[in-house]
Amino acid sequence: MSWGIELWDQYDTIASHTQKGIDFCERFTHFLKDRCAIELKYASELKKLVKNYQPKKKEEEEYQQYSWAVKFWEVLKELHDLAGQHEVIAENTQGQVIKDVQILIGEMKQQRRKDLQDGAKVQDTLKDSLAKLDKSRKNYEKAFKMAEKATDDYRKADADINLSRAEVEKTRNQMMIKNNQCDESKNEYAAQLQQTNQHQRDHYTQQMPAVFQQMQSMEENRINKIKSMVRQVADIERSVIPIINTCIDGMVKASDGISAEEDSKAVIDKFKSGFPIPEDIPFEDLSNASVIDTSNANGTPKNSLDSRKGTVSDKKRNKKDKKGGGGLFGIFSSSKATINKIIGLLGEESKEDFSDLPPNQQRKALNKKIEEFKKEIARETAEREGMLKMKDVYVNNPALGDPNALEKKIEENALKIDSLQAEMRKFQGYLANMDGKPSPAGQRRSSLSDDSISQSSTNMEMSQTSIPGQPQIVPNEPEVYTAVELRKKEDKKAIDDEDGDHVGEFDHPEGDFDEEGYPVIGTCRALYPYEAGNEGSVAMGEGEEMFVLEQDQGDGWTRVRKHDNSEGFVPTSYIQCHFYDQDEV
Q: Which of 101-110, 159-168, 170-179 has the lowest average pLDDT?
């Protein structure tokens, strides 16, 4: 269907219709802008919501212990990601669709202006031709009337006998002139009529249809572009649906990860004091003069939860107890008071061995401290191994650097590791004393005085100086006299008290050492040669295969047995171990 044929007489209507199309495009642009503003505001409000409900610094520890809190945090993260997808919708719509609509509006306005100008020129041409035709027709009518009048005058003059022949001839000549003028006007009118008809045919069959066709093409192009943009908006939103679905799946997964049983266990682990339940209250016979001791025989501190006498918080609790809120011995006080007590103890400056905490909380605090030391020792050890390797590279290729430049850093690193291990052994001792067990193996193997620690560091430095490029001996090499004498005392005491069930850790296997006390737990291979400098350690050659009897307890030494049945300790960093329990896994 062509507008030029079907709507040949609707030029003004078509001009108005195309203007309405441009107006719609501008309105569509405003719609997209408002839609983007809504998406951005929605995303902003979601992110603000997530920020408002994020756990505060003091609540982070709480969020890491309970599944309901951790999973809610994950839901907030998923909601934050979902908000980001709405921002993506707005950004893509602004950067792609709105920009294309604005370009389309500009092109349509320019094209419509050109088409209207062409249509106006074509119409002006037809109007000029019609004006000329009207003018020639009027001239023809005027000449025709004048010719008729001249003919009538001649006829009257010729019939009038009173007129002279000369006057009649004059009237006849005038008639001839007017008739000639009438014929000329008639010919001009006929020619102009033919020309105007040709212009009119061209106007309605060629010129105006061409203009209409251009406007029709412009309008159809606008409609197709709008169709494409509407689909593009839908595609932009569809493209983020998989990510939104992933966020929703993450929320569902987070909800599945909430466990009431695990959270109940976490509450027990966090707030369990470790004190036994108080025994029955004994009867006080007032008739006897003697005072009955009401303290618990099992070691439970009396009024264990209200033992902080003389403090501000204790005075507040005493006031509360006087009002009847304390319960029997203060033990059955509100859970909130118990929680606040434990959290308060953890937050205050506690003793080094955490002995001011309840037993269970003390054990947790000591284990946490030991793990921190282990991580720090592992980090420093890795850093040390890196410096040793770099030193070996410098020794083999001096052009890359001076190996002596690393000596000071290696010494500082050794002292730091020595200090960390001493601190860790101290806390391991606190934990062992709390559990009623002997000191850890790592603590028994090491020196018990600051002098021995310094001595092991000095021996390590001498080893580095005497053998350039050889890996450094791990700090805290056993100090002979102190460790052996201590172990002998412990063995003697263990034999006397327990009929010889405990065996000395540093005793020679040919003596009173029970081989069943140290079963083989794996194998190892020596990476570097090592010369035993002290009693309790054994020498090994590079590539030598040995049996592992005891793993490194964090002090840098591993207990091994050689094929000649000799046993002792070697630096852990000098061997590569393979444990049997790894095969079972």
A: 159-168
Residues with Cβ within 8 Å of residue 23, at least 6 apart in sequence: none
Q: Of 28-32, 333-337, 392-396, which range is least confident?
A: 333-337
Instruction: Count CA within 13 A, CB hemisphere, residue 497.
Output: 8
DSSP 8-state symbol, 292: P
- CB neighbour burial string for 246-280, b if at least 16 within 10 angstroms, e if fewer: ebeebbeebeeeeeeeebeebeeebbebebeebee
> At which residue do the structure tokens 């907030």 appear?
76
Element (DSSP H or E) covering residue 308:
none
Q: Which two tokens stand for residue 69?
A: 């809190």
| Rounded (5°) CA angle 270-274-280 | 135
Rounded CA-CA distance 466/343 in Å is 53
pLDDT in tens, 120-129: 998 898 899 9
Altogether, the residues listed in the chain come to a count of: 585
Q: 510 is written with which tokens?
A: 């040919």
Q: What is the mean pLDDT of the chain?
A: 76
What kind and span of H or E run contains 283? none
- Pairing status of strand 557-561 against strand 545-550: antiparallel
3-state secondary structure (DSSP) of residue 257: coil
Q: Give the Cα separation of 68 and 81 in Å (integer).
A: 20
Residue 571: name the closest of 535, 519, 526 by CA. 526
CA distance 76 to 583: 42
| Average pLDDT, integer, range 207-215 | 88
What Cα–Cα distance (Å) separates residue 538 from each residue in 395, 532, 549?
A: 27, 5, 13
Q: What pLDDT score was predicted for residue 320?
A: 41
* Helical axes 67-92 vs 208-256, angle rounded to 10°: 170
Residue 309 C-beta-side C-alpha neighbours within 13 Å:
4
In order of 87, 135, 177, 240, 573, the CA distances from 186 in angstroms are: 78, 12, 14, 79, 125
Query: Any idea which residue has 């001011």 for tokens?
Result: 356
- Say if CB 557 and CB 497 are below 8 A apart: no
What is the pairing mode between strands 522-526 and 545-550? antiparallel
Contact present, 181 and 142 (Cβ < 8 Å): no
Minimum mean pLDDT range among 370-384, 486-500, 552-566: 486-500
Asked if 558 and 540 count as a contact pair (C-beta separation under 8 A), the reply is no
Is the pLDDT higher at 392 or at 77?
Answer: 77
* pLDDT tens track for 255-306: 999 999 988 888 888 788 777 888 888 888 888 755 444 444 444 444 444 4
491, pLDDT greater than 50: no
**226 torsion bin: left (phi>0), alpha (psi -120 to 50), beta (else):** alpha
Q: What is the number of other CB atoms lying within 10 angstroms of the CB of residue 113?
A: 10
Amino acid identity for residue 469 in this structure: G
With beta carbons less than 8 A apart as the criterion, state whether 508 and 491 touch: no
